[in-house]
Design a protein that fits this description.
The protein is α/β, with parallel strands linked by helices and about 400 residues long. The chain has twelve helices and 17 strands. The radius of gyration is 23 Å and the shape is globular. The protein starts with a strand and ends in a 5-residue tail after the last helix.
Length: about 400
């Protein structure tokens, strides 16, 4: 039996597909099969897949009519002959050691699932891991994992990362679980699948290593508006309701599931529905009270957070936006304000440099770089911006 079946759903991915396939074929674990499911692509994806299949017999191509991510994964899973199953999205790529490490961990601990981290590649690269501790979860510890699978409540963070793509699953059990996932789900299908699998399996290993490279593309569906978004959220809610009667599904899990729905509605208001008042509920503007009146504020970071900070600062009569800098300024063009290269900071007069980076680790690294460049620490500010629904959940005692 093949050790690992790697399933790659493909839909109009010609621009990014080559890097993805090359990274999968370069795996140090050689006993793999690669099942590429073309989900009705209209570009050159299918032709490229057949070209790769001719050069490497481990790669198999399935072509089907367009039916979405869930149906493509089901088609790939049905053809998988491996002992374990993994997934890679066609616009991402993976490190050479990924499946060797995941497979060896699964065998060593006889795990039904191994979960690892990933690199998020946007304007800068950040590492992301599961919010629960590294190690084996079995017998009595499975209850803890399930109750923290959606959120790690104590840390006010995600529990198990929802993506299927940084995990390895025991094939037989996963095939059964996957068949129960609704084809109508257009997003969060991974989250539902991981939670459903956690309810069925008995041994999970959480690994604090990252191998998967999730690449943020401007054309991604999370960057485009969807006027049917609320219908999609309801499909997720109905999937959760279907799990409520499972004997392992606890009241604490229901609280987490319903907070997750709250989060999706909140995201809809901020970005997914295409409202003109985008990001209305995204930031808690309390940080403005900490900035002295009359201060000239320079922003370091021109991404989504920097743009939101800039709008808020420009709306204040008692504060002045001195300017905004970002190493990726060439890719940032806004009507609100211009984004410049970081060397512009040397030419501006400012009282405060506000680091507009949401990820704490990356923000602290930037803070260190700015201090090395001669900017005094007392002039540097960074404010944690947790999603504000956490505040209401905590105040109302949702998590004890």
């Amino acid at each position: 039996m093949t050790k690992v079946s790697i399933i790659i759903p493909v839909y109009n991915a010609e621009c990014h597909l080559r890097q993805c396939l090359d990274s999968v074929l370069a795996q140090s674990l050689k006993d793999i099969e690669i099942i590429c499911v073309d989900d009705g692509s209209s570009d050159g994806s299918l032709r490229m897949l057949h070209g790769y299949a001719q050069r490497d017999r481990r790669l198999k191509v399935i072509h089907k009519e367009n039916g979405g991510a869930v149906s493509a994964r089901k088609a790939g899973t049905a053809h998988a002959s491996g002992q374990y199953i993994g997934f890679v999205d066609s616009d991402d790529w993976i490190d050479p050691e990924m499946y060797r490490v995941l497979y060896q961990t699964a065998i060593q601990y006889q795990a039904d699932m191994v979960s690892s981290g990933y690199f998020f590649e946007g304007n800068y690269v950040t590492e992301h891991y599961d919010g629960i501790g590294e190690g084996l979860y079995d017998e009595s510890r499975m209850g803890y994992l399930r109750e923290n699978a959606i959120y790690a409540a104590a840390e006010e963070d995600v529990g198990l990362r929802g993506s299927l793509c940084c995990k390895l699953f025991r094939a037989g059990l996963f095939r059964t679980v996957q068949e129960g996932i609704s084809d109508r789900l257009s997003f969060s299908e991974d989250k539902i699948c991981v939670l459903s699998y956690a309810l069925q399996c008995s041994r999970v290993y959480v690994l604090k290593q990252a191998f998967y490279h999730y690449v943020a593309h401007p054309s991604s569906r999370v960057h485009t508006s969807d006027t049917h978004y609320l219908t999609s959220v309801n499909e997720i809610y109905q999937s959760f309701i279907g799990l409520y009667e499972h004997p392992a599904f606890t009241g604490a899990m229901r609280v987490q599931a319903e907070l997750y729905i709250t989060e999706q509605l909140y995201k809809g208001i901020n970005s997914r529905l295409g409202f003109l008042n985008g990001n209305l509920l995204w930031l808690d503007p309390y940080y403005l009270d900490d900035i002295p009146a009359g201060a000239r504020v320079a922003l370091y970071g021109g991404g989504e957070l920097g743009r939101a900070y800039g709008r808020q600062l420009m709306g204040r009569k008692d504060l002045e936006l001195a300017g905004c800098v970002d190493p990726a300024c060439k890719n940032m063009h806004y009507d609100d304000f211009e984004v410049y290269s970081p060397d512009k900071l040397q030419q501006w007069e400012y009282d405060i440099v506000l680091i507009a980076i949401k990820n704490r680790e990356k923000a602290m690294a930037v803070k260190g770089e700015l201090m090395q460049a001669g900017i005094l620490e007392e002039k540097l500010r960074w404010y944690e911006q947790k999603e504000i629904f956490w505040k209401y959940a905590r105040v109302n005692g949702w998590f004890k």
